[in-house]
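seq:
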Amino acid sequence: MALSAAKNVRPVSLVVHAGSGRELKEVFTFFKQGRIPLLQASTGGSIPRLPKPLRFAWIDAPNLSPPIVLLFRLLEKGQARRLFRGFEIKVLESHQATKTTASGTALKITRLLGADPSRIESIRNPEIQRERLGVPGAHLGGHAIHKVWINGFGGQVTLGTQVYGRETYVQGIALLLTKIKRMGKKIGKKRGLPPGKYSIVDFFC
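struct:
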């Protein structure tokens, strides 16, 4: 969405950032004039510090897929970090070759489990993705796979997520807009959310 066009947006609107972070300073300047929620859906690049005072709603989203966001809450509320302390935990993630950083989902899951983020295995080689992970050729340019292995006491727990294409993220944004609208009505804010930091988990759970 162009910043000039954003001046005439509808009451329940959302600006989505999924880039490198280079544009955020300009976005922050614009946001001083209004209170449109800003969804931070990028995990790479350089994210500048949030301005103070924060005059808009900043929503952090390591992932936009509703079932994966719910997995975050399950691991958090289930106290996975405490329960699996001392276990051997391995995390693997695979994305299209154009993604140069570890995924936010992998980093989030690693933190929730209390594992070492520096040991995340990131796969970007299309041949390995196709042969080892079974990614269809049509989705080598747009997919997200995460696998987690938790080993201990002679047993293993395996977790995994799989996304091909972008449809689940579009549905996640649509659901978020609905949640923002409902929350705005509940607290009497016609334009949605009051300024502050939010997590996408707060809206889906």
